[in-house]
Amino acid sequence: MTEKLLLAGVIGDPVAHSRSPRLHGHWLRRYGIEGHYVPLHVSRDRLHETLRILPELGFKGINVTIPHKEAVLQIADSVTDRAALIGAANTLTYTAKGMLQADNTDGAGFIENIRQYTPGWSASEGPALVLGAGGAARAVVSALLQDGCPEVVLVNRTRARAEALRDHFGAKVQVLDWTQIPDVLEDVALLVNTTSLGMTGKQPLHIDLDRLTAQTIVNDIVYSPLRTALLQAATAKGCHTVDGLGMLLHQAVPGFERWFGTKPAVDDALRAAVLDE
Ligand code: ATR
Question: Is 172 a catalytic residue?
Answer without folding.
Answer: no
